[in-house]
Amino acid sequence: MKNITLLGATGSIGVQTLDVIEAHPEQFRLFAISFGENVEKALPIIKKFRPEWIVVKNDQVKQHLNSFLSGNHNIIAGETALEEISTHHKTDVVVNAVMGSVGLKATLSAIEQRKQVAIANKETLVTAGHLVMNKAKEHQVNLLPIDSEHSAIFQALNGESRQQIEKIILTASGGSFRDKSRDELKNVTVEDALNHPNWSMGAKITIDSATMMNKGLEVIEAHWLFNIPYEKIEVIQHKESIIHSMVEFVDYSVIAQLGTPDMRVPIQYALTYPERMKLPQSEHLDLAKISKLHFKEMDFSRFPCLKYAYEAGKTGGTMPAVLNAANEVAVELFLKGKINFLEIEHLVAKMLENHDVITNPDLETIQSIDKETRMKARNISGSL
Ligand code: NDP
Ligand code: MG
Predict the structure, then answer these.
(1) Angstrom distance (rounded) from CA 382 to CA 160
(2) Which ligand neighbours the alpha carbon of 82 most closely?
(3) According to the annotation, is 202 in a ligand binding site?
(4) Spatial separation of the C-alpha atoms in residues 285 and 64, rounded to whole Å
(5) Judging by DSSP bridges, how do beta strands 165-172 and 243-249 pair with one another?
(6) Could you point out which of 66, 153, 204, 245 has its C-alpha 20 to 30 Å from the C-alpha of 230?
């Protein structure tokens, strides 16, 4: 029986992780959860799974939650509380499914305590990949990827050494606007952007998919998780999201991982690795029914965010943290109707242009650059 600490339980990955936990009561127990402020969504989870610990964003949310609960629930608030549950002696596995770079410290602390870490939160690896991976190496912790592309690569690699890899090929669905020209993107709405053709996900990642920033973040995520240079990471458009990614080896043999688009599959694999288990709710892949799979070369001028991510990744240092923080602010402003869709990429580009990179930054430097970028991005967002 593994005790799971689930960061971001009310989110899209969080809820699907709960499905996996519920499907295997003999294997998994929900020990602790965290969420931001969505008390309404958290209450049924708390009542059903009765986690020992609950972490919320701040004291206000704690009070609000307390007013609905009776009995002895341990509710704590804030970012240090995330670290507390992630390093708790009863925690066996930490699933990091929060949105944005808030999960960074909790991930680092969990690694220090040699917890098994299943990571969905790509912003953590983009912001501070070198710190996370160095720590993982130091404490001999395997980071198990939940992101479907990285789970696919992890499965395709299956113990093969890094020297055998010719390249990694990430697939990209193209997001909600894949068939629109740049001209047609000028007046798209938030509602249009949130309508992803293949996956049902949280708002931020759905917008990231439409701008292709999601794939850019995934390129950086793959660089860190698999210790592969950017020159050996390729992206190809594949609109059906059936091939989740591929690895080409030095002998040009290519291993791909396929499946219906269902995040519970990579979530469960990260929890059961190296074993596999039946996943009751999931479906067979029926290739005869799908009949055709499509592939298209990536167009970097159509999707400049992907280009920015490659550049920021190659530059390294604090640049990826700036890319991520600027993008988080830009997406939030777009979702609130304060900037238009194309201004997301303008804002990110401006922040990258104006940043003087600091090489090999420590955690404090990264956190202060993250904060400063968010502030500057908000300030200039009115004058794009
Ligand atoms: P959601 O927006 O659906 O959920 C985010 C979760 O994080 C919620 O539980 C939310 O709480 C919590 N949260 C948000 N902000 C804070 C904060 N400041 N402090 C504490 N908790 C916070 O996101 P997703 O589930 O879609 O994505 C989560 C992560 O997984 C992201 O990094 C994403 O890139 C990655 N990912 C997601 C995939 C998907 O299919 N959804 C696929 C691959 C990767 P509340 O509900 O209270 O706001
Ligand atoms: Mg993905």
Answers:
(1) 49
(2) 1
(3) yes
(4) 44
(5) antiparallel
(6) 204
365 is in an annotated binding site: no
Beta bridge partner(s), residue 296: 237
Which of 205, 212, 220, 244 best tests ligand 1's pocket when mutated (most atoms within 8 Å of CB)? 205
Question: Could you tell me the sign of the dihedral formed by the alpha carbons of 231, 232, 236, 240, in that order?
Answer: negative
Task: Give CA–CA dist 369/352, Å, rounded.
Answer: 12
- Ligand 1 centroid from CA 25, angstroms: 24
Q: What pLDDT is recorded for position 196?
A: 84
- What does the pLDDT look like over 47-87, one tens digit per residue? 999 999 999 999 999 999 999 998 778 999 988 999 999 99
**Which candidate, 115, 112, 163, 122, places its Cα nearest to that of 146?**
122
CA dihedral 169, 133, 306, 347 (to 10 degrees): 170
Whether the complex's predicted ipTM surpasses the cut of 0.95: yes
Correct CATH for 2-141 of 2.60.120.40, 3.60.15.10, 3.40.50.720, 3.30.1490.20: 3.40.50.720
Q: Is the pLDDT of residue 241 over 90?
A: yes
Q: Write out pLDDT tens, residues 179-234.
A: 999 999 988 999 999 998 888 899 999 999 999 999 999 999 999 999 999 999 99
pLDDT digits (tens, 9 = 90+) for 148-184: 999 999 999 998 999 999 999 999 999 999 999 999 9
pLDDT tens, position by position, 100-157: 888 899 999 999 999 999 999 999 999 999 999 999 999 999 899 999 999 999 999 9
38 in a labelled binding site: yes
Residues in contact with 347: Cβ distance below 8 Å, sequence separation at least 6, in sequence order: 326, 329, 330, 333, 339, 377, 380, 381, 384
Q: Could you tell me the residue ranges of all domains in the chain? A: 2-141, 150-383
